[in-house]
Design brief:
By secondary structure, the protein is mainly α. Helix content is 66%, strand content 2%.
Length: 482
Amino acid sequence: MPDLRPIGYVIGLLISFLGMTMILPMAVDIIDQRSQWVSFAASALVSILTGGTMALSCANAVRSGLNRQQTFLLTISVWIAMPVFGALPFVLGEVELRSVDAFFEAMSGMTTTGATIFSGLENLPRGILLWRGILQWLGGIGIIIVAMAFLPELRVGGMQIFRSEGFDTDGKILPRAGEIAQRISVIYFSLTLICALAYLVSGMNAFDASVHAMTTISTGGFSNYDGSFATFGRMTEYVAIVFMLLAALPFVRFVQLTAGNAKPLLRDSQIQTFLLTALVLIACLSVWKLLEFGSASEESFRKIMFNSVALLTGTGYVSANYMNWGGFAVTLLFFTGLIGGCAGSTTCSIKIFRYQLLIASVGVQLRRIRSPHGVFSPQYNGRVVSDEVLNSVMSFFVFFVVTLGIVAAALSLTGLDFTTSISGAAASLANIGPGLGAEIGPTGNYGQLTDAAKWILSAAMFMGRLELLVVFVILTRRFWRY
């Protein structure tokens, strides 16, 4: 049995920090003279006291580092504990959500999924709207640090390919991982601030600009309005497109850029492939709408570009009901959500680099068939990829497809139709947000689903955000014998 005290110490500190962030929405509700501020005060007190007590009781076991087993458990425990305490303000106060709904909303926030059970968002206390944005913002920075510091060391889903790349700049070693996490946090905050200012200039009010900046840079997708970005003007949509794309790039490249080296950012094949994918997707949908509906206006192109980028990056904003665009467009957008952005960004889903490795591996196999005596090796960013990395990537694809099928089947047992089940499973497992159909599609929400379906989807969001294998590995007997 592993020593859980170092894990408890870190989680205690994080819960206490989460409690302190509740002061911000509490202050907003006090200014607005809403009684919801009492729930934030109570939630903050519970979180700070619980987290502080946990950290103090486990402080005597703090060591210089965690072993592999403890790292797995810490990664998983954080994404369970934070939504539990993050759900407290939803249960208390004016909104008075049931525990299943509150946990679903908090899990959706922390995993930056963007699926919501709320309707009538315009009528909610501003403190609650701000808290939803804060949850996604914290989840976004959290997953970047996990992706940079933990997943490569845990050798999850091919992420070990970034063990050296994430901390090198053309052969020059960047500062240690802790300092890189600090630099990433500065860049993350700076991008959020710049995004908020851009939204403000585009016509948003200060509150909407602040919340939407947090949910844009985290590629989370929570909005303050049921209509999402259909509520705002065209300039706001263009601003969102730019910052969604920026948030989908590897943040370590921004670290290297601020260190004075722009070459890794410009030469990264993952970034090039991601941007090319976005362009091809937009072009295909534009041609489709032109041929199908004869629509070639600026508004039509903008709606295509916005919703395509929102789904590709897993942000989940909507500015139009793309269910009306025709079968081809809906199918293409469904699979778009299963692509994702770059590794080391706030985006989710399968991610571009895994498709690159899969295609490289298939290409090598085809060349070996044509030339049995030749020696061929798949490459990524000019480097030979080991069999260990390829096997890890293949395992991830298999686990993703199998898990998607299991989640969809489980949802169908709750009474959901096929379209809702399969799209809901994909939207939660890939942390996209909106699914397909009238119920959970771009104009709906998850509020009318059964409790069983909400628990299933919450579990899928959790597994998808942690790259699946991190969760499944602790279910093996061998893990506990480590």
